[in-house]
Structure formats: C-alpha cells, structure tokens
Amino acid sequence: MLVTTSGVASLAGLDAIVGDLLGDPRYRPGLVVVFDHSQLDWSGLDPEDLVRRLHIALKEADLIGPSRIAVVTQDDRIREGRTLRADEPSWQAFRELDEARHWLELAPGT
C-alpha cells in the first residue's frame, strides 16, 4: 500500500495518517507499506517521532501491523531513527520511491 503525504509534519498529522490507513478498506494486517514522505517537511520533528507515531501505532492497532515498511524522504535525519522495540516491523528509509518498492519486492512472502 502506498501512502503519500505533503506539507509540514506534525504529531497530530502522523496520528491522522495511522487512522486513515487503518480505516482504509484495502488495508490488511501484514501488508507491506510505502510511506512517500518525499514532499513532507520534517524540520519540526525528531526522527524518532516517525517510529513512535506511525510504526508502533500501526503495530498496536491491529496486533499484527505491516510486515515491512519503506519510508521515502529527502530528510536524512529520518535514516537516523531506529526501532524502539523488537516486535516492530522491519523498516528502511529511501530517497527514491523506486528504491523503496524494490526493497519491498525483495521481502519474503511478498
């Protein structure tokens, strides 16, 4: 599933993304997800905010969560963010959408 964002990132906005994703009838636990944040301004948030607000919330919301998450962003700080718990889905940051899709295609079971 591809989720595209733009504008200025906020904690409330990240919460809304999770709610919208989980409410989308196409969403199923275990999907691979691409968050295309290449047009999103992250300057007001720390890299860990991405992990806390998106990944953990998705994991806790449906107990399975996405199997793999790719994040497309021009903000190099996001690459510094790391998972906080062992049961979080595998994720990686990319500069280009094609690179993210390729990584997801290599995922087992996809």
Outline the structure in words.
- This protein is α/β, with parallel strands linked by helices and 110 residues long.
- The protein has one domain (2-34, 41-96).
- Helices cover 35% and strands 25% of the residues.
- It has helices at 11-23, 47-62, 97-105, and strands at residues 2-8, 32-41, 68-72, 90-94.
- Strands 1-2-3-4 form a four-stranded parallel sheet, with helices on one face.
- Helix 1 links the parallel strand 1 (2-8) and strand 2 (32-41).
- Helix 1 packs parallel to helix 2 (47-62).
- The longest helix is centred in the middle third of the chain and has 16 residues, at 47-62.
- The termini are close together.
- The model has no long low-confidence stretch (mean pLDDT 78).
Write the layout of secondary structure elements.
Layout: E1 2-8, H1 11-23, E2 32-41, H2 47-62, E3 68-72, E4 90-94, H3 97-105
**How many E strands?**
4
Q: Could you report the average pLDDT, rounded to the nearest whole number?
A: 78
- The shape, in one word, is globular
Instruction: List the strand order in the largest sheet.
Output: 1-2-3-4
How many strands, which pairing sense, and closed or not: the largest β-sheet?
4 strands, parallel
Instruction: Kindly report how far apart the N and C termini lie.
Output: 12 Å
Strand and helix order: EHEHEEH
Content-based structural category? alpha/beta
Relative helix content: 25-40%
- Give the domain tally: 1
What is the radius of gyration computed over CA atoms, rounded to a whole number of angstroms? 13 Å
> Runs with pLDDT <50, length 5+?
none
